[in-house]
Design brief:
The structure holds 2 protein chains of 2 kinds. By secondary structure, chain A is an alpha/beta fold. Chain A contains 11 helices and 12 strands. Chain A starts with a strand and ends in a 12-residue tail after the last strand. By secondary structure, chain B is α/β, with parallel strands linked by helices. Chain B contains 10 helices and 12 strands. In chain B, the strands form 2 sheets. An 8-stranded mixed sheet of chain B has the order 6-7-8-3-9-10-12-11, with helices on both faces. A 4-stranded antiparallel sheet of chain B has the order 2-1-4-5. In chain B, strand 11 (309-312) and strand 12 form a beta hairpin. Classes of the chains: A alpha/beta, B alpha/beta. At the A-B interface, helix 8, helix 9, helix 10 and helix 11 of A face helix 6, helix 7 and helix 9 of B.
Chain lengths: 324, 328
């Protein structure tokens, strides 16, 4: 049994005819100890998918129209408040994008970490365990930091404290939602290194949400690329980065500037990311796609396994045309 | 090389902290601490560094949005740091700025036509309303927007389109220098490339110079001929863009480049993980400001501030050990 299995998840904002579908038929699974990376631009639905795993979206406005989110075989969408409280921060922990906004500014770091322990491992809610956690995430001088307020720490240190808090209840799944986006590149490298090290040490599964294809290769076992509420391609990380098959994945990779290339012009994707509620008919990428055919605007393509473990939502992935 | 368009000479910007009647000893954030460089007409110079290194303050000081504490900003030979009032306002036509946040830098209550047209009004560049409208429409077309967009408000546009409006506003007065302060870092990857390409095309067409401030080295490399690397208010390395990126000589630049995310899973790049954070610019470390994080630091680095010196033709490095730290 997979640790996490999402089946055909459909999530709307609002109800009735005005409902906006943010997640449309997303399915993926995550084995214990595995790292899956969910890649997409803003508005692709990657964050709301991740937040749905512990039902962290206020409902309403969020409204689950269909599908299942199975955590160790139990459907999160059918859980009551008590059961949800048990998995939140227990089985599933989160690390968010902005550590400064996620930490409570009026409590000391040590107190906030201890709070997580009290909820899920009350027997270990003591200073010694907090110190061990702070050491585990590489915070220098943890004895002093335990008494620090969040504003006294840098962004990188705050993010380490957030990770310590997330690890406190020994989660089996760590959901990291853009954990390095607000940080500088040298600090980003530190945090990615830390996550990789913790995964090896603790054997937990990680769901990493990012828009940055550059950090995918460092951590992920598998990648799922999202566009306009749907998964357009999933593959083992290495294979996807070596040979992306969906035109969107290819275009996204080409538009990332690289230090090694000598090209004068970047390959931009024309147009803009479609807004929620204004997704095009047929294939949602067709207005921006260099390989679009006439039928792309009419028929919605299905996600098909085109090679072992490689799923692509494009009937023309193998047709000649734009080559990388 | 002929006369530079802009020559910055030992520019300093210090901000007082703990001000007020009960403040103790006066302290200063040395955001920019003795920076010198030049920009030739039509050239793009990239300015990179992490948050808190002073790159944004430097960019803002050059266009006089913050007051320089000391030093000279020679624009076409004239010291902008000494100009005030109407004299400064008149010169502003020649240098403009594009801001990082496309949401915060456009007045939400003004129509796009007026946001761009205001620049034309201030400098009296169009004789009548018809000419003004025509000019606004041609500017919108220049940046890839539809002329009819002049009648809309900023909230009707996406981030990338708003950044195009900001660019059109800067272009309106036909400046010779545009300071671009992180113009793409708030945008999605697929949109970033569009804006970078647009800036390049506009430069080829109009021939203005850019000071391109960003934290993403790869983006800077794509646009710039020369790169300045800043750390704690000082320039630590300066040189031709490709040389600086391919064979950086300052340990900080080396770490910055190695930390840049790489898409290629087979990349041979060895990642240098720097320990610690950027120190406080109020109490910068003595000697070389980078020494507490530097993997090569020796005793001399703690005692002596390294001067920016030319180690190769056009390649400047502020490191005592620049000769020994050549990348393998």
């Amino acid at each position: 049994m997979a640790l996490l299995e999402i089946r055909n998840l459909q999530m709307d904002f609002g109800r009735g005819p005005k409902a906006l579908r943010a997640v449309d038929g997303v399915s993926f699974s995550l084995e214990a100890g595995e790292t899956l990376c969910l890649v997409g631009e803003s508005g692709s639905g990657k964050s709301v998918t991740a937040l749905s795993i512990a039902r962290l979206l206020a409902s309403p406005p969020a409204c689950y129209a269909g599908g299942e989110i199975l955590l160790e075989g139990r459907d999160v969408l059918r859980m009551n408040a008590t059961e949800l409280r048990g998995i939140r921060g227990g089985l599933v922990s989160y690390v968010f994008q902005e550590p400064g906004a996620s930490l409570n500014p009026v409590f000391r770091i040590g107190h906030q970490i201890k709070e997580a322990l009290q909820l899920h491992r009350p027997e270990a809610a003591n200073d010694a365990e907090v110190l061990r956690l702070l050491k585990l995430v590489g915070i220098p001088a943890p004895e002093a930091r335990i008494k620090s307020y969040p504003h006294e720490m840098s962004g990188g240190m705050q993010q380490r404290a957030m990770i310590a808090m997330a690890l406190a209840p020994h989660p089996k799944l760590l959901v990291a939602d853009e954990p390095t986006t607000a940080l500088d590149v040298t600090i980003q490298a530190q945090i990615i290194e830390l996550l990789g090290q913790l995964r090896r040490q603790l054997g937990m599964a990680i769901l990493l949400i990012t828009h940055n294809l550059g950090i995918v290769g460092d951590l992920a076992d598998r990648v799922a690329v999202m566009y306009a509420g749907q998964i357009v391609e999933t593959a083992p990380a290495r294979e996807l980065l070596k040979r992306p098959l969906h035109p969107y994945t290819q275009a996204l990779m080409n538009s990332v500037p690289s230090l090694d290339s000598d090209t004068e012009r970047l390959t931009a994707i024309p147009g803009t990311v479609p807004r929620l509620g204004a997704f095009p008919n047929g294939c949602r990428f067709h207005p921006r796609c260099p390989r679009a055919q006439s039928e792309c605007s009419e028929k919605s393509p299905a996600l098909v396994e085109v090679e072992p473990r490689r799923w692509v939502r494009c009937p023309f992935w193998n047709s000649p045309g734009l080559k990388r | 090389m002929n006369e530079p368009l802009l020559a910055v000479k030992s520019l300093k910007v210090h901000f007082p902290v703990n001000v007020g009647p009960f403040a103790g000893a006066k302290e200063f954030v040395r955001a920019v601490d003795g920076v010198s460089f030049t920009i030739a007409p039509g050239e793009t110079v990239g300015l990179v560094g992490e948050s808190g290194c002073g790159k944004t303050t430097l960019g803002r000081a050059i266009v006089r949005l913050v007051e320089p504490t000391d030093g000279q900003i020679l624009f076409e030979g004239e010291d902008l740091a000494r100009l005030n009032g109407s004299a400064l306002r008149a010169r502003r036509r020649k240098f403009q700025m594009i801001f990082q946040d496309p949401y915060g830098s456009l007045d939400p209550r003004a129509k796009v036509g007026n946001i761009i047209g205001e620049a034309l009004d201030i400098h009296r560049l169009t004789p009548d309303a018809a000419a003004r409208r025509q000019r606004v429409e041609s500017l919108l077309a220049d940046v890839g927007l539809d002329p009819s967009h002049a009648e809309r408000y900023p909230h009707e546009f996406s981030g990338g389109q708003r950044q195009r409006i900001g660019i059109a506003r800067a272009l309106a007065v036909e400046p010779k220098l545009i300071v671009c302060d992180e113009p793409v870092s708030a945008l999605d990857v697929s949109i970033q490339a569009q804006i970078v390409n647009l800036l390049r095309d506009l430069q080829q067409e109009h021939g203005m110079a850019y000071l391109f401030v960003a934290h993403d080295l790869a983006v800077v490399l794509h646009l710039s001929r020369r790169i300045l690397v800043m750390y704690l208010g000082r320039i630590v390395e300066a040189g031709e863009a490709r040389i600086t990126c391919r064979s950086p000589r300052h340990p900080y630049t080396q770490a910055l480049i190695s930390a840049a995310p790489v898409v290629d899973p087979d990349s041979k790049r060895r990642r240098i993980i720097l320990a610690g954070d950027v120190p406080s610019p109020i109490h910068p470390p003595g000697g070389c400001p980078f020494h507490p994080r530097c993997p090569f630091a020796v005793a001399r680095c703690k005692a002596e501030v390294p001067a920016l010196r030319e180690i190769d033709s056009g390649h400047w490095v502020a490191c005592h050990l620049a000769e020994q730290t050549a990348p393998q």
